[in-house]
């Protein structure tokens, strides 16, 4: 009798990167931390999918410091000052890896805050894949009302809307519980997006299968975007300072989303966790 065909699952390598950093008060990002200024990387990720390189977000781009020198961006810069070294943008870093910006056909956008979409204009061949709920509440916001949402519309390319593809959310497989819905981004089971709104409208986190084996989650990397300022807070349920909640789009949604991620992590304790503004965990995870 012939052996049943076995297909090994598609895996994707995650390369965590950062383009620039912002300064913030540590005490705002974690309850109980010191009242001192700390630098936080503007993380993004290169996903090496068999179909080609893909980005999750871009970090800051060259336009961000420029916009922060004039009204109303100057207000954004006062609240979270930005540092971006020459050659520190996503496009420049990819060029050093011999990846042309035109080879990036997909940028998955976790949410539309300026530190996540700061270099979108540098990728002219890319489609932007995001939750359909991310853009509508921000569309048309200008000036102070936009800055209030950490949104700088000038960062979006002029043809942004025609290049957006909504994530294909559907019923999630059981292992993704407590998430009832998820989007199988490449339709091959390698990258799943789950909705974690609250910090910003339509924010998504990704689960990326990096290795072929494991039932405790060790094959998965969770890219949790801004669901927490640091990995420990996400794993252990640490809270931000109440003042920092003012910046959330929806406080109740934020709490619920963070709880769902924590719940998933408790069921898959060996998954690697990456949040945008903290150093990425490395394998193996020490428990
Ligand atoms: Zn954010």
From TrEMBL:
Names of required cofactors: Zn(2+)
Pfam family, one: Lactamase_B
Domain of life of the native organism: Bacteria
Keywords: Hydrolase, Metal-binding, Zinc
Domain Metallo-beta-lactamase: residue ranges: 42-277
SUPFAM superfamilies per the UniProt record, alphabetical: Metallo-hydrolase/oxidoreductase
Matching PANTHER family: 102 KBASES UNSTABLE REGION: FROM 1 TO 119443, QUORUM-QUENCHING LACTONASE YTNP-RELATED-RELATED
Protein family: Belongs to the metallo-beta-lactamase superfamily.
Official protein name in the record: MBL fold metallo-hydrolase
């Amino acid at each position: 009798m012939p052996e049943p065909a076995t297909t090994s699952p598609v895996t994707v390598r995650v390369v965590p990167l950062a383009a620039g950093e912002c300064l913030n008060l540590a005490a705002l990002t974690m309850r109980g931390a010191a009242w001192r200024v700390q630098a936080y990387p503007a993380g993004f990720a290169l996903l090496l999918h068999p179909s080609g390189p893909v980005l999750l977000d871009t970090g800051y781009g060259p336009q961000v410091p420029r916009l922060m020198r004039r009204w109303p961006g100057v207000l954004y810069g006062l609240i979270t000052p930005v540092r971006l070294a020459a050659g520190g943008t996503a496009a420049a870093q990819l060029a050093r890896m011999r990846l042309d910006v035109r080879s990036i056909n997909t940028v998955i956008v976790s949410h539309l805050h300026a530190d996540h979409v700061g270099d979108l204009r540098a990728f002219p061949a890319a489609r932007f894949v995001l939750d359909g709920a991310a853009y509508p509440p921000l569309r048309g916001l200008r000036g102070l009302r936009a800055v209030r949402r950490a949104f700088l519309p000038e960062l979006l390319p002029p043809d942004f809307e025609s290049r957006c593809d909504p994530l294909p959310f559907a019923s999630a497989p059981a292992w993704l519980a407590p998430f009832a819905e998820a989007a199988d981004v490449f339709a091959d089971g390698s990258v799943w997006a789950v909705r974690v709104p609250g910090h910003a409208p339509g924010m998504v986190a990704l689960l990326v299968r990096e290795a072929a084996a494991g039932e405790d989650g060790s094959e998965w990397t969770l890219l949790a975007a801004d669901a927490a300022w640091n990995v420990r807070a996400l794993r252990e349920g640490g809270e931000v300072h109440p003042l920092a909640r003012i910046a959330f789009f929806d406080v109740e949604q934020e709490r619920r989303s963070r709880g769902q991620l924590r719940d998933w992590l408790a069921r898959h304790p060996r998954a690697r966790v990456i949040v945008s503004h903290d150093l990425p965990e490395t394998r193996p995870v020490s428990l």
